[in-house]
Every structure is written in C-alpha cells, then in structure tokens.
Batch of 3 targets.
Target 1
Amino acid sequence: MAKSQEEQHPVKAFGWAATDPSGHLSPFNFSRRETGDQDVRFKVLYCGICHSDLHSIKNEWGFSTYPMVPGHEIVGEVTEVGSNVEKVKVGDKVGVGCMVGACHSCDNCVDNLENYCPKLILTYNSINTDGTITYGGYSDHMIANERYIVKFPDNMPLDAGAPLLCAGITVYSPLKYFGLAEEGKHVGIVGLGGLGHVAVKFAKAFGAKVTVISTSPSKKNEALEHLGADFFLVSRDNDQMQAALGTMDGIIDTVSAVHPILPLISLLKSHGKLVMVGAPEKPLELPVFPLIMGRKTVAGSGIGGMKETQEMIDFAAKHNIKADIEVISMDYVNTAMERLVKADVRYRFVIDIGNTLASTKP
C-alpha cells in the first residue's frame, strides 16, 4: 500500500494555505521530508509575496492543487544539513526561489538552466519525485536539495533580499541573455511594480540608459527621483510615444495584465528585442508586420538557473540592489492579497514569518 504523505514526510510543519479557488489563506498543519544526504533544512524568517502566488491561490492559470502553501521568495537560517552537503553550513543565511528540483540530466540542466527542464519541480503546487505535493515558504521551515539553495552574502538584508529570488532573477536573466546588460544600451522597462522597480535598478547597475514606460503619470517622480531611471514615458500619451519611436535597444515587459504590445514594438530600434516576463492569463495580439520591418524580436524569459541566481544575488549585494518592500505579519496576508490585486504596494510585500507565524497557530 502506498505510504501517506505523513509517513513519507514525518517532520511536522506549520504554515498558511489556500484550500480552494477563493484564494483565502488560513493556518495549516502539514509535514516535510526528513533531511536527506544532500538536503538543507532552514528556519524560514521571511517570504516575499509574488504576483504568481495570487494567480496560483485563485487558480487563475488553471493548474492549482489544494491545499496550497504558496511562497517562492523564501529566506532564513540553516538549521540542519545532510552528510554530503558542501555548499552551506548550519547558521548560514540562505534562500530558495521558484524551484526545488529538475532531472539534472537534460541539455538544459547540464547548461545550468534547470528553470527550462521539462521535469522542473516548482517550489509549491508541484509534484515532488516521491509523488507528494510541494509546499512553499508561507511556513515555519523549508527543505531543499543543496543545488537549489542560494547563499546570501552578509551585506544582503534577508527581508529586502527575499524578492530577488523571483523578481530579481526574472529581470536579471533576460537583461544578460539578450545583450542589454551593457554600458550605453537603451532599455525600456514596462510597468513599475514588483518586477519593474527591480529591473530599473539592475539595468542602471549594468550601465544602461533606462526609460520607464507606464500607464500611470503619477509614477514619474518615483521612477526618476527614487529609482534613478533616466526617462519616463506615459504609454497612453501619443505625443510622448511618437517622440520615442525607434530609440530602444530592448524592452523588458513586466506587466501581467492584458495590454497592447504594438506600441512597444514601435519603440524598438531595428534588431530590438521585446522580452515578456509578465504572464497575462489571456493571449496577447501579436502584429507581425512591424517585426518584419525591422528584424525585431518578441521573446519570453522565465526566472533563471541556479548558477545564475547565485550570480544575481552576489551582483545585487555588490551594487546594493534590493527590493523596496512593505513588511507584514502573517495574519495580514489576506488583506495584502486584496491590496496586491489593486497594485496597492510599493513594491513587494514580505511576510515576517520568523516573528509572526507562530502566534497564528490555532
């Protein structure tokens, strides 16, 4: 007879879970596996709230499994390591991002691109190699194979560093891959939310000229004064958009709502690249003629491999890049999700798991 999840995973855990597509989160007892030879277990101190947590708890992408413990911007302190672990030791500050497993033998895995492995195992709402469901970071502790553990430099604050494990690598990877992480390149960033504000910081650190493209004129000061962007374009202002035609080497589009991309393609120079990193739930309209008339590219990019994620965290620490966050208590999470729907956050909620989770136990 098949073993139950509790038999396979005897270590008691506590977190908050969604139990149906209403997305309402509430206290939840579950269990995690014992520490294997290559595993790292850590006490969760903070966990960022990503927009995909919101999509997932409400089953907006259509593949949610309940009960679901969300969270894939997880940081904390190592409490136990397996006998073969070499990367970290007890007491180290570490994180886990969007994935906890892959096949480790396909071309992508061999190239340190586990994020594109056909057998990728996501940090939550995924099936582990033992057939059990993966649970994320809205919980008291986390365990993962050391390959998926990111070591945090001493000068990287855990709370403001947590969102980099998803938002950070999601924008860092395409900036590097598509040749936009270079001095003097003109990079457009569409959307000034959790992803967008971090994209501005990375692009500036790479030496690029940065234009923020937004539907909200009210974000101009924030973009230019606080985040250090060079220019600000209101995408609904035809005169502004007209004046910027054909000026950008590349654009990182972070918007996860349905929006027109023809105006963005028009901003690109010949051979320019529009890279989609937001994930709207409905297909966008793709006009082909403007692509042909300038050998332009529309591409996608999803997080990054573990080697690049560590590189990104080290780069961020060196250049003092961190997310702008609002730290919340565990029992505020449902209110935070309601605010996230309205984009009412600057720019990332981070749950103070270490100080506020235990008090929510029934």
Target 2
Amino acid sequence: MPVSTAHSSSFSRFNTQSSYSLKQPKLTSKALTFPQYRTFCVKKTNPNSDLSASNDISVVSTASGPIHSSQAIDAGSSMRKPISLWPGMYHSPVTNALWEARSSMFEKSSDETQDSQTELVAKTPSMSRTTIAYKFSSDYILREQYRNPWDEMRMGKLLEDLDALAGTISYKHCRNDDGATRPILLVTASVDRMVLKKPIRVDFDLKISGAVTWVGRSSMEIQLEVTQSTPDSLDPLDSVALVANFTFVARDSKTGKSAPLNQVLPETEHEKLLWREAEERNKMRKQKNAAQKKDVDDRDEDRLNALLAEGRVFCDMPALADRDSILIRDTSHENSLMCQPQQRNIHGRIFGGFLMRKASELAFSNAYAFAGAAPCFIEVDHVDFFKPVDVGNFLRFKSCVLYTELENPMKPLINVEVVAHVTRPELRCSEVSNKFYFTFTVRPEAMKEELRIRNVVPATEEEARRVLERMDAERSQ
C-alpha cells in the first residue's frame, strides 16, 4: 500500500471525477533501502536524505512485491510544500499527497504505453487498499482547513477527499504487477448512499481507508470507510463514522467504448461479504434502470394526484392554502460559476470532488434558509455523473427542498436536490451534468425553540414525479 507524506503551504486540491487516464509505467526503485521507497520531489534530492524533509514525498512502492500494511498517508503534511508540482491542477491538503502517490503512473512515454501489458490479472482487495490519516489533534493548520463555523467538520471538503481517494484506489487496482496497464479511462459513474453514523469532530484524529470490493466486466465498486476514535467510542465498531460506495466504469481511451477490468479476488470472510453486498447493489441498480425505462409512464396515479392536490390549492386558491406548507419552487436557490483551468484534472475536465463540494455547500445553504437554523448533515442519498464538465463551461447549480419528513418532531429530515447544468449560451442549450441528493436535520438546540419546519408540496407533475422517484429510491435502500 503506497504511503506518501506530502508537504505544502498551498491549499491545493485535486479530484478524480470524470476521467482517469491509465497510461502507467513500470515502477522502478531508487537507491533507498528498507522498505522500497520512491521519492518524488521538486528537484533532485539525495536518496539518503531524511524522508520527512519538507520537499520530499515518500511513497512505498508496491509494484515488485505484495502489499503490506504500513502507515497511512499524512493528510496534513502536504500543506507545507512551498510550490505545486503540477501547474493548473486542483489540490487540497489531502489530494495533493494522493496525486504525488499517483504521479508515477504518468511517467511512461506514449511509445512505451503502446507496448504496455494487455493481459488482465486478478487482484485482491488488499492490493488496492489505501489509508489517509488526518492528524487533527496535533495539526492546527490542517484542522483549520476542515473546520466550519460551528467547529464541526466541513462535509463538502470531506466528500472532495473521498472522491480523490476513490480515484487513487481505482488506479491501483487497474495497474498490473509490473506497474503497467492498458491506456483506459476511469469514469466516476455514481456514488451510493453515505450515511453519517456519528458526528465527525475536528479535534480528534481521523482516518479514511478504502479498497476495491467488487468488479464487473467494465465497472468496479470502491468502498471507503471513515473512522474516528473518541473517548466515548470504546468499541472499535463505534469508531466508524461514515461508509461510502463509489462506482467507476472503464472506457477505452481511443474508442470510448467500455473496457474490461482486472477482476477482484476477495480473500477474507469480510471481503467476501462486501463482494456479495456490492453484487446485490449492482443487480438492484440494473433492475431499477430497466423499470424506469419500462414503466416511466405507468406510475401510481393515485400517489401522483395526492401529491399534486395541495399544490393545486396553492396555485388556484392561495388564500386557502395550508400555512404549514410551501411549494417546492419557493424553496429554490441557485449559483453559477465559470469552470476555470485551476479546477481541471490532467485531461482538462473539472474534478468531480470539486463539484460534490460545491453542490454540498449549496445544499447546506438551502437547508439553512429553509429551516431558519443551522442544519446538520445526515447523508448523501445519491450522486449521478451523467456528462463530464470541461474547463470553460458555464456551470449552474440549482437546488430545492424536494420533500421533508416530519414524523419525528425533534428530528425533522430535509431532503435537498441539487442539479448541475452545463449551459452554453452561444448554442442556446443547457444539459444536466450531475444530480446530487442530500439529507439534513436541524440541531436539537434549535428544535427546543419550537422551530417550525414546513411540509413541501409539488406544483407540477414533473416535480411530483421527482419526489416519488426519490421516495421510492429511499425505500429500496
């Protein structure tokens, strides 16, 4: 398992959203001893120098031997390096270190890549396992980058790092034993439900660990686990704060068609269980897609009409409408941005983690304005990546409260939808590139003040169908 320690003063950020090109060379070891270290730095360094020097990034090579457990990537040390190694790349304290660990995969020339090994190999989950360590308890500078105004974790930044780590893990799985692979693109397809099991604090150390858990013909699932030990978490199982499942698909870099992937061979009983769970999710995903295509016009009319009934009162007789309800369209918020070169990956596309962070922050703001009190993150319900976002695109994020769940008055749930549109004014067109779904609640201290959370109702059939689709998806999870 590669271990890297990066040092940087820039708050650089990279992500792994849309495409990952795999043109990977054979890793070669430098003249370092025990263990096999490869040093990437701004300038040529003495291989016998201290591996923790401020300009060095130490990566444990895994190309010539089995993967062994070792120390985690230090999230904070990447903030001390004075310059960035990759102009134009988008970095963060964590993703900078991950990118350095991945940089060896791009050293081979295009001629060499044509001769890369094409044979697929089976790999165990342990061969792609990677861990990031956040030393919040001792690293004040790192802690400041992840702290929100309530001294809690900025979930958008954590989502950004999760996406970056998933991309690095996908690279490692697709690399063959000699460090080479076929030239393919890895595309983030979706992110399944992420449920926050306990609050994440910024004054205790945090770890993110993940590995490939399932592989189909041209798709793979990567499971990431966020853990944090606190004085009240005596049981190791209590330290798990969040679990996330990312789905990637492989595309041939020349034809754009699906490309086969290295298979995964689970070894332990836990790895076999994760494989079975991922296989079941994949089957359910296919069934859901088939059902949507087949029955899109055959939805339950009674449910649809029930949702629309109150909305019609708002539209036709607003004076008689329920004062504890509000139309979906009246909860809308929006922001726009130009996609800048500084936010690109090596293929000129915008990092998916950056998009996830921007969507998360807009959803938080929307829930804040809707509830009238600072919300608490509960879960990411789902994320879909439909189309890549390129540098120079005019990107619009549109959010709304899709529905609320008010069964528990002390813990109301606010479900927020964020849709990203790539808008091309010169062509007079706009396309949906991403959809994000988040769930928030209101802080208990705010609920003591008898804060009123309204019911949200659709006014159009299109809105009602979106609500039903999300409710059905929630029930099926």
Target 3
Amino acid sequence: MAAAADAAGWSYRGGPRDEQSALLVHFSNGRLQNSEDMNFTLYKSKDTTNPRKKHRRILTSETERLSYVGNNFGTSALKCNSLCRYFVGVLDKDSGQMEVYNAELFNMQPLLSDDVIEDDLSDYQSKSYREKVDSCIEAFGSNKQKRALNSRRMNQVGNETLNMAVTRAAENIIGAKGVATLVSDAAQDDVEEVSLFLPPCHEEADKPENIYRFEDLISSAEYEALQAPAAALTNLTSEEILKKPEEESLCSFVLEELKSMPVDESSRDHKARCLWFLDTLIKFSYKKVIKKKCPMGPDCPRIINKKLMKNFTALTYNSGRIQNLISASMKAKITAYVVALALHINKFQIDLTLLQRDMKLHETRMLDIAKAMRLKISKKKGLSGLGADEDHKFGTLSLPLPSFKPSGGQRKRKKMD
C-alpha cells in the first residue's frame, strides 16, 4: 500500500492521528454500530512546497461489505472545515490534565471497486430491457414494486405451464376426434353464438309470420305506448310525405313505406306504429355511449326508452363509472330486430340494400345477418327514385327455411398436380 501511495504522490501515515491533530469521521450512508472493528488509513500529500497541496489528506477505511474514502479537498470535502475549527480533548485521569488537539472532520463515502463494475457491466449489457428494469427493482425498488415483480414472475411461470397444458390437451383432442369433427363442432358453436343476438326463431312455424313472432319484437304494453308518437305518421298527407326527404327526419325505408299506407284506419295505425318504432331503432343504433336515461328524448315513451337501454346496450366500466355502450354485437342485434320488424311491415320481403344504407353497415355484414335469420337472398333493381338503375339485394322469409352456414369457414383447397 505504501508503494502505491508513493507513486501517486501521497505518503502513508498509518493511523487516524496526524502528528498534533486528530481526525473526526462522519459516514454519509449511516451510523457505525461497532467502531472497534474499523481500521483507518491516512494519506498525506508529499508536495510540502506547494501551500495549497501540503495540507491535503485522504482517509480510507474498510469493512466486510464496503470500502470508504474521505478527503479534505475537492468537491466532496466538507465546507465546515474552512468556516470553523474543531478540537479534541484527551483527559488524563491520573493527573487530571487534558491535552487539546486540532481536529478535522472527514465525510466518509462508500467506494465502489472498478473491477466489480466492469464484471457486472459485461453481464448487464447482455440483458434485455425488461431484465434490466427487474434488476433495478430487486436492488432499489420499494416493497410494493418487489411484490409486484414477484407476482408477475409467478404469473409468467403459471402462463407457461398453462400454455403447455393447453397444447397437450389440444393435441389429445385432435388425435381423438379428428380435424373434420372439430370443424363441424366449431360451425355449430358459430350458429349458437349468432343466435344469441337474433330474435326468437320458431322453426316449427307453419306460416312466415309465426317464424319471428310480432309479440317477440313488440310487447302489448309497448304497442299501446306507440300510439301517441305514431299518430304523427298516421295523419301525414301525400304532400307532407313528399316533403319529408328534404327534412331528413326519417330513414329511407320508412319514407318508402309511408308512400303506400293502407286506407283502412286500423291497418294504417298498425303500420304507423311499426314504422315509428323501426325508425327509432335505426336512429338508436347510431349512438355509441349512452349517457342519458332517456336516450331518444322526451317524445319517446318511457317504456320504449327502457326497452332500448335494457335489450340493446351492453354495460361497460370506464373512468370509474358504469356506462351503457352500443357495441358491435349490440348493433348486430338491433339490425336483426330491424330486419324482423321490416319483414312484418312489408309482407316478408324487404330491400336489404335500403336497410343496410339506413343502418350504415357494410353489405357483407347485412347479408351475414340476413342469412343467419334464414332469409333467401335475391337480386333485382331497386325501387324508383332510390337507385332504380342499380341492383339491390332483397331478403325473403319463406318456408321451408334454408340452412344457415356461417361465413368464415374453411375454403376448399385446390388440388396440386
């Protein structure tokens, strides 16, 4: 150690006392629990001719875990040494006299070995960013962060075990049932999943009007409540109907049906109620998040508002509160009920293209819903004034019902020569 000190321009003094001065130490990272096991080494500058350097001192100390170093110069030196003087008194108990020595305060800071840093750095650079963050949490993280880290690692092990178990189970099922059976089961699951969003379908019905029963779409209490708002449609004159497209207050399907209202008062009232409810359903589908208890306004009967909120919205949790949301599946359900009601209005044959545009859907989405409802799809020219020069898709509900094959199934593979 003395040779290293000489090479660096420092002389080894051996102990904590420097001639007629004493050294006081303060550890920056805590207090000493046992000072008897501490060994100190003092280094003094050999440049005695330079007045600025001849008083420089370096004090070192070692414990089982860390090495410490302190000095009386540079940025790490304590400024209090230059602002005041410290003294240490040594009392001789036999003579009762005290000797007073000049004292200097040193701030001892932990010293990290350069070799350790280089060894750790080589391993550190090979780690991923996630592993580096985890290492920092292990070393310096709070108890909460360490618990979260342990929990994540346990979940990761659990997920790997679960994935292996699922893979083995899938292999066993494929080996036992075969691919063809599994594809058939998946298709049946698709049929059952689609049926959750469709009106109740009575396949054993003897007439088209009993397949999707009217009372499953509108209850008797709801039908009575529709009388007041539907009166505005019942009393429309031919001139007022022609002006409605300019107002854009009603959807295209409703406007077309208003042109052929029955003369009979009872039939006219029935159709007006159905059209008003259908128009309300279509407008309700345009919404995303429902923030009001009466989403369709005060003119809509309370029982209808309640039906819309209960049957055609999904509950979601957002920003600390529960909200009603019209999700993609709920919009599909609204579309299915609109199609079923339109079939009752128009003698079980409807212009799907017209409804698709009113619902603001893609054609494939509308056709998928129509096929799921067992409609027979045909193509012909549209009605006059509404794209008469282009082909429209029409849906017809008739017996016997065609079988439903969900889209998205496996395509036929071409044979390789």
